[in-house]
Each structure stands twice: as structure tokens, then as C-alpha cells.
Amino acid sequence: MFAYYLKLGFRNLRRNPILTALMVITLAVGVAASMSSLTLLYVMSGDPIPQKSDRLFVPLLDNAPLQQPNPSDDPPGQLTYRDALALKADGPSERETAVMGINGALDSGRPDQQPSPTEGVAVNSDFFAMFDVPFRSGGPWSESDDERGGNVMVISTKLADRMFGQADPVGKNLRFEGRDYTVTGVIEKWEPLPKFYRLIGGNVFAFEDVFIPFNNAVANEMTSQGSISCNVDGEVEPGYQGLMASECTWVQFWVELANAGDRAAYAAYLDDYVSEQKKLGRFQRPLNNRLYDVMDWLDFQEIVGDDRRLQTWLAFGFLLVCLVNVVGLLLAKFTARSGEIGVRRALGAPRREVFKQYLTEAGVVGVVGGAFGIALTFGVLALMAKQSEAIGTMARVDWVMLTTALVLSLVASLLAGLLPTWRACQVRPAVQLKSQ
After folding, report:
1. Cα(366)–Cα(413) distance, rounded to whole angstroms?
2. How far, in Å, CA of 5 to CA of 11, rounded?
């Protein structure tokens, strides 16, 4: 019987086409508004590396001075250079990497290409294995290059295609900031969202094209493109060496543990490390170390702010307004068919069958409205992407969001159809037959 009611539902879409079009368009607009906002929230609040997000951690140490104006309960979001080196050398972790944003002029050496400003990041060789970075060709630089800070680099697919066309750039040289670097690998398209590995001082939507050894960037005294916090007692010695020896925090740092259960052991190691450093006159404040996994780190950095959540709630409020209008339109449509309902009831159709038929028809409106809503969602996101590169990066509709849109539209239409369907079931056959 349901199949018959479903067939009737699609057939009745052609009855009173103007009213049907108004319902479909109203529902589609509401679904598109809510799904566009929900898609952006879904992307930014998702797990960017679910296969190991519980094993990747950001350690933070509280080296702020004891006396400071407006003290924070949270430690600085980065490490000092000396602490990053110590944790990398002695920490009980599987892999470790420092992360520092850099930029500079990149020159392919070809006469037909001018040097271009390029965003990059200085990391340790463990970075690529830690974050499951895929390679189109080649791979990371060697451990010896990592330790000595060799002139090597990994580049993005976009940069490789722009500089070398179809040729494989592995083994070839690029000139970056006046120095020749040998390309060891080309990264396949890799755009984890949110861009969790570099949230402080970096563009969380734009992905870097150049990766070089951290020790190379430090040896060449490259300026950190990010936050440098020098909330310290006394003066900081001038120059790059003074920055490296200071208590200024400017190095982002990640560790990978063998399993999530090792978190407590690593936290104990951090406590022991700070206790030892206290004996040397550092870390004046009480122990206040933090160890954030990927999702905790995203929450700590407030990647999904209250304004984004508010926008999503407002969009669903708009969908509710659309549903109210759909209820009115369904009431008008079903009321116009009171005579038909009266005849069915007089011929013996029970109320429950009338209820099933008209609720199925409301569901059909929801499916059609959802299909149009999905198409409109793609259009809205494409339009938003043209206005903002950041939104363009996030505007990804996967099968989860497609399914959500259809289910949302179907459920919304069924809820909107409850009152009109109930009213249709209250039609009295005798009254209708007398009026015909």
C-alpha cells in the first residue's frame, strides 16, 4: 500500500503546480540555508586525522614570569627554542617535530619565470610520517639532512606543476631566499581541515608550498612567520642568537606517542623536566604543563567559535520559519481536497489510511524539496567560495552531508505535514457528500 501512496504522492505534485512549487522552493531555501552553515561547521569541527588524532599531542610548558600583569591560567601556546630542542632530544615519544612558519622568494632559475613570494614551513623530517603526508614522488629528506640542516626541501604538487610542468622535480634545485635547495619529494594534495598542525600565527586555511628542515631555517636565521611571545623578566639579548637563548616562546611542537595510553607517562616526563629546570632558576610558576591531543588542541585554540555556532542556529531558525510556511501551504492544498477525502471515507477508508496517504504525500514534497535544496546548497557554497578563499577551502560536501540534507528535508516535511494531515483526517464524510 505504501508504494501506491508513494506513486500517488508524486502524481499529486502536478495537481495545483503553483502551490506545489511554492512548497518545494520554500523547503529548498530553508534546507540550503541550514546545510550551507552546517557544512562549514561540520568541516571545522571534524577530526582532521582520525586514524591517529589520539596519539598526536602538543606539549605546553608554563615559563611565564611569576609576576605579570593580567596573568593567564593557561601556559603559552608555543615552546622556547631550548625546550623544543630538549623535548626532541630526550622525550619518550615515537616521533617529534618542531613547526615554524617561513616565507621567502622562490626562484626556479628559468628565465621565463620571475621569483615569487612563497609560504612555507620549517619542520623536522618526522613531520611527514607523523601526519601521514602522502607523496606523489620522492619522499622526506634524510635524518642526516635533518640534523645538519641541509639545503633540501619538499614541495607541494601545486608548486611542482607551476615550476616544472610535467617533469619530475625530485633531484632538481630551487632557489629559496637566495640559496639552492634540492627537492627530495613532492607532496600529493594534502589539505587536512582544520589545518591543525599550524594554528598559531599561521593562516589556518592556506596550505604551504615549501617544507625545509627546521635546523636549516634556524641556521640561516629565517624570521618566524607567526607569534613570538616575549613575556619574560628582563631584557632579551638582541639578534637571532638572543632569541634562541631567551625565554621567548616561538616554536610550535608536536609529538607522536606509540599509543594513547602513553599520555600519562609523557605528562609525567614533562613534570620531571620542568622540575629539573626549576633547579636551574627557570619556570618560576607552579607546575602548569598541558598535553593536548588533536581534538583538545582544536578546542583550546577555539577553531569553532561561538559566532560560527550562532550562525548555524540562526540558519536552522530560518528553516523553522520555512517549515511554518510549508505547514500553511499544505493546509491549503489538503483543504482543497476535502471532497475527495469525504468520498474515500464514505467508501470505507479508515482514518489511518487517509493519514498514511497524506503524510506520504508530505514526505514526497520533502524529498523533492531536499533534492532542490542540495542543488541550491552547492550553488550557495560556490558563491561563498568566490567571495572568500578560506570558505572555498572549507566548502566540501561529502556523502555524510548529502545524506544529512535529504534526511533533514524528509523529517522536516513530515513534521510540517502532521498538522495538515491530522486536519484532513477530521473531514466528515456526510458533510462533504451533502455539499457536493
Report:
1. 5
2. 10
If you write DSSP's letter for every residue of 308-368 in order, what string do you get?
HHHHHHHHHHHHHHHHHHHHHHHHHHHHTTHHHHHHHHHTT--HHHHHHHHHHHHHHHHHH
* Cα separations in angstroms, 172 against 111, 139, 186, 292: 16, 14, 11, 39
CA 337/CA 326 separation, integer angstroms: 17
Amino acid at 429: P
Q: Which residues share a beta bridge with 104?
A: 118
Sign of CA pseudo-dihedral 343, 348, 354, 356: negative
pTM of the model: 0.76
Which has the closest alpha carbon to 135: 119, 155, 152, 165? 155
For residues 93 and 266, is the Cβ–Cβ distance under 8 A?
A: yes
Say how far apart CA 201 and CA 223 lie, in whole Å: 13
Distances (CA, A) of 361 to 3, 80, 124: 11, 65, 61
Burial of 139 (0-12, 13-18, 19+ CB in 10 A): middle
The cell for 280 is 636551574
Alpha-carbon distance values, 98 to 121, 223, 267, 412, 413 (Å)? 10, 15, 18, 49, 52
User: Which residue, 115, 25, 5, is CA-closest to 363?
Assistant: 5
The answer to whether the Cα torsion of 23, 28, 31, 37 is positive or negative is negative
Residues ≥6 apart with Cβ < 8 Å to 9 = 360, 361, 363, 364, 365
Q: 3-state SS string over 255-281?
A: EECCCHHHHHHHHHHHHHHHHHHHHCC
Give the confidence band of 432 by pLDDT, cuts at 50, 70, 90. very low
304-323, pLDDT tens digit by residue? 756 666 777 777 787 788 87
Residues 6+ apart with CB under 8 A from 270: 59, 61, 289, 291
The tens digit of pLDDT for each residue in 350-382 reads: 777 777 777 787 778 777 877 887 788 777 777
